[in-house]
Amino acid sequence: MAVIDMLSRLNMDTTVLRARMATLTQQTTTGLKSQQLGGLGQDLPQALDLKAAIHRQQTYTAAISAAGGRATGTQAALSQLHDIASHFADSVAIKLDPNDPQGIVRAATSARDALVQVANLLNSQQGGQYLFGGTDLANPPVPDAANIGTAGFATQIGAALGTLGGGNAAAVMTSAVTAAGSNAAGVTPFSAFLSNPASGLNEARRAVPTADGLTLPYGVSANRNAAATSTGANTTGSWARDLLGGLAMLANMTPANAASQPDFTQLVQGVTGWLKGASTTIGEEAGALGQTQAQLDKLQTIQAETVTALTVQLSGVQEVDMAETITRLQGAQTVLQASYSAISQLGSLSLVQFL
User: Fold this and answer.
1) Which CATH architecture group holds 62-309?
2) Looking at the predicted structure, is the pLDDT value of residue 23 above 90?
3) Were 219 and a residue from 9, 120, 205, 241 both cysteine, which residue would form a disulfide, CB within 3.0 to 4.6 Å?
4) CA–CA separation, 323 vs 157, rounded Å?
């Protein structure tokens, strides 16, 4: 009976050793203490906290990356808008001559084309989302870009321009600025969402979450400034409206407007200043967005470093010491072989040996 009891105990020990061998073999193969979180024992709470922190940081990193891409797209559009404003201020409007009717016609034709180009730039998209649409990502901020030259603000500017003469250049300019700054339906070229004080007209800038409880604004809306402030004698307070208004003024000019040369010259000076102001403010807007992009790049680097550090901590909780595990596996193999040898020897005892 003693031998049988011994065999029974050896078999039980062998079963335990085989289970230990299986665990150690799996650990040396995967490098993990356990493939199931429940197998981490007292380290489970720390592992769960670290996994949650890594996921949260990765989510922030993805959001920052996406915002960086949209900021880059916005910056590209701003660059082109700045070029258009600068060109018409420095090379077109300033050179208008009441004694050069063909030059006036050429400037008007060029301005009409530029109006459509500006409207399309304000409708720029990135990843299927409108960059200048505020939080209305699915709809164009300028709904009828192709026909912006006949939008209400442009026709009102044209009507005011038709009254030029008799020393009213300043009044015509004021009427043009008022039309360009209007949010009234049928006058503004911008979407109903952006023109509504209860929605896009006063909403906060689009921002990206960068950490728990922290966001960084980066959005630029088509009909109002984001970080820059428009200045000058003639401004709507919005660089986009100023640019569109100045172009609409040029687009509606005809040689007949030069009949009163003093008024025409004064108005041209006003339009030139209007466009120069738009150009300057767009440059400031682009500069501010550039600073935001630098912040986004820095934050993305910090997030990546944080994820790396957390991953190292998680590895310390989840992963085994490979050298130690191999040593333990080899030891278990030796003990198991000895156990098998003992069982074999006990199993070979004869009945005489039992007696």
Assistant:
1) Up-down Bundle (1.20)
2) no
3) 205
4) 81
